[in-house]
Amino acid sequence: MGAATMRLNENTMLLGKKVVLVPYTSEHVPRYHEWMKSEELQRLTASEPLTLEQEYAMQCSWREDEDKCTFIVLDAEKCRAQPCPTEESCMVGDVNLFLTDLEDPSLGEIEVMIAEPSCRGQGFGTEAALLMMSYGVTKLGLTKFEAKIGQENEPSIRMFQKLHFKPVAVSSIFQEVTLTLAVSEPERQWLLEQTSHVEEKPYRDELAESL
Prior knowledge:
It is globular, with a radius of gyration of 16 Å. A nine-stranded mixed beta sheet has the order 7-8-6-5-4-3-2-1-9. Helix 2 packs across helix 4 and helix 7 crosses helix 9. Helix content is 35%, strand content 27%. By secondary structure, the protein is of the alpha+beta class.
């Protein structure tokens, strides 16, 4: 995957029914930084707390990264409210694709985080994952997905199983379950059907212009 491929999403916005996916910009960093102060989220994402300056630096590196594709997940209903809210006030989480297997560029590791506790269990994570998987298949040429989930995170494990992922390994050292999905032709058709409602639009800083 070249840099041009991975930066493909920096001008892309994906509109679903429940969620809108937008590129991770500096505007999103303060809210993201607040989320990651949560010990629960640090544990679930195996993350260390960063300073705000480090978070801004991380956002820049993610944006330039050749093997990572990141979208911020927005609450679609909030985004459509009038008067138009800021994107930061609509943020509910993020979704990532890591393309770190140099020997297999068709494999993507997917990670979904719904950080706002009040937004969990409403299907936001499921739709965000579907949008990202469809994007990975149609734009990045992926044919296999992998998800690594903490053993205690049963809702996330169930969500990926609903998306046809199968558990293939359990690591007692890392306390995590690895689930995989091979995108056969029937799976590809199912994925495209599940995301047939999605609109792809050019991303602008002013969300109101495109909604």
